[in-house]
């Protein structure tokens, strides 16, 4: 209720206390939660292991690895996923975690670009995110991100698609209810990239956005597009304080 009042007031919903909100994890069956919690049965751990190997792999003409610059991920990457997206000085725009990793590939390794949603980029993002498992979401307070957060809020509340529905119609107004067989979550981006049973693989938050847009018969934006990064910035501020799940499992 506090969340809804904050949205109606037009402000960012960071005022809502973490205990008033429920993550997708809390809405899952005990069986799925157990699958996520157990490293041996969580299918996302396969991507984390692949990411750990890529972290050490030399790339580009100078043969530099991620580890060559960043050292032990357990130290250098702890908390990073919990505060992304962040500002990128060089491009004068925000980047999400996958965007940042892709930029390190091209700028710092001189290697070929990795596409959003490609397997190696998902694996690296899953490995980096793993270093923040359980940490509270702590959005970057950089004021240059504020106009983008506001753009994301506007997108979240704008009616779209042939069904003429806003994200907020389901995820604020009817969160906790059902859409057919599926429980409607509050859309907290606490567990990305995630292993979705429906996908039978790991996928990113922007792919999830695309699923919801297709559901309301709207045309999805491209993964990594500025509109999706703005939506992500808004949803991360709305989820501030909730625990990050890496890797998450969803139905
Ligand atoms: C018609 C209702 C509806 C609308 C509109 C909708 N969604 Fe969803 N969304 C769902 C349902 C239902 C799920 C649960 C997943 C499933 O089983 O499909 C979901 C899941 C999600 C999740 C995953 C949460 C988690 O725990 O991982 C996110 C994030 C999300 N939606 C964001 C959005 C955004 C952003 C928009 C607007 C662009 C949007 N949704 C529009 C119904 C909707
Ligand atoms: C040659 C050194 C170098 C290499 C190799 C490198 N990075 Fe980076 N990385 C940087 C620098 C410098 C930054 C700060 C942002 C910038 O200037 O691009 C950074 C920033 C980051 C950040 C954001 C950290 C934060 O606190 O915001 C992540 C995540 C990251 N790198 C991941 C990777 C991954 C994954 C790889 C391997 C695919 C990699 N980096 C390879 C130099 C490197």
From TrEMBL:
GO molecular function: electron transfer activity; heme binding; metal ion binding; oxidoreductase activity, acting on a sulfur group of donors, cytochrome as acceptor; transferase activity
Cofactor: how bound: Binds 2 heme groups per subunit.
Cleavable signal peptide: none
Enzyme class: transferase
Cofactors named for this entry: heme
InterPro entries xrefs: Cyt_c-like_dom, Cyt_c-like_dom_sf, SoxA
SUPFAM superfamilies, sorted: Cytochrome c (SSF46626)
A Pfam short name: SoxA-TsdA_cyt-c
Positions annotated as active site in the UniProt record: 212 (cysteine persulfide intermediate)
Binding-site residues for substrate, renumbered to this chain: 208
Catalytic activity: S-sulfanyl-L-cysteinyl-[SoxY protein] + thiosulfate + 2 Fe(III)-[cytochrome c] = S-(2-sulfodisulfanyl)-L-cysteinyl-[SoxY protein] + 2 Fe(II)-[cytochrome c] + 2 H(+); L-cysteinyl-[SoxY protein] + thiosulfate + 2 Fe(III)-[cytochrome c] = S-sulfosulfanyl-L-cysteinyl-[SoxY protein] + 2 Fe(II)-[cytochrome c] + 2 H(+)
GO biological process: sulfur oxidation
Domain of life: Bacteria
GO cellular component, as recorded: cytochrome complex; periplasmic space
Keywords, alphabetical: Electron transport, Heme, Iron, Metal-binding, Periplasm, Signal, Transferase, Transport
Domain Cytochrome c, first and last residues per copy: 50-137
Positions of heme c 1 binding: 66, 69-70, 104
E.C. numbers: 2.8.5.2
Membership in a protein family: Belongs to the SoxA family.
NCBIfam families cross-referenced by the UniProt entry: thiosulf_SoxA
Assembly: Heterodimer of SoxA and SoxX.
The name this protein goes by in its record: L-cysteine S-thiosulfotransferase subunit SoxA
């Amino acid at each position: 209720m506090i969340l809804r009042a904050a949205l109606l007031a037009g402000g960012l919903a960071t005022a809502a206390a973490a205990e008033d909100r429920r993550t997708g994890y809390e809405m899952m069956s005990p069986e799925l939660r157990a699958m996520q919690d157990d490293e041996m049965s969580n299918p996302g751990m396969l991507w984390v292991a692949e990411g750990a190997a890529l972290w050490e792999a030399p790339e580009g003409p100078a043969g530099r690895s991620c580890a060559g610059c960043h050292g032990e991920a357990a130290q250098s990457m702890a908390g990073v996923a919990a505060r992304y997206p962040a500002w990128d000085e060089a491009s004068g725009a925000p980047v999400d975690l996958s965007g940042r990793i892709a930029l390190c590939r091209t700028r710092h390794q001189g290697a070929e670009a990795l596409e959003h949603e490609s397997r190696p980029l998902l694996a690296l993002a899953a490995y980096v995110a793993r270093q923040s498992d359980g940490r509270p979401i702590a959005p970057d307070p950089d004021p240059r991100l504020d106009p983008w957060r506001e753009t994301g809020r506007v997108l979240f509340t704008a009616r779209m698609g042939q069904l003429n529905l806003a994200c907020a119609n389901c995820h604020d107004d009817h969160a906790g209810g059902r859409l057919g067989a599926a429980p409607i979550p509050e859309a907290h981006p606490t567990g990305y990239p995630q292993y979705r049973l429906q996908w039978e693989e790991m996928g990113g938050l922007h792919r999830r956005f695309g699923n919801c847009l297709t559901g309301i018969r709207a045309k999805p934006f491209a993964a990594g597009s500025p509109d999706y990064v703005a939506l992500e910035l808004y949803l991360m501020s709305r989820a501030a304080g909730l625990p990050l799940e890496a890797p998450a499992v969803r139905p």
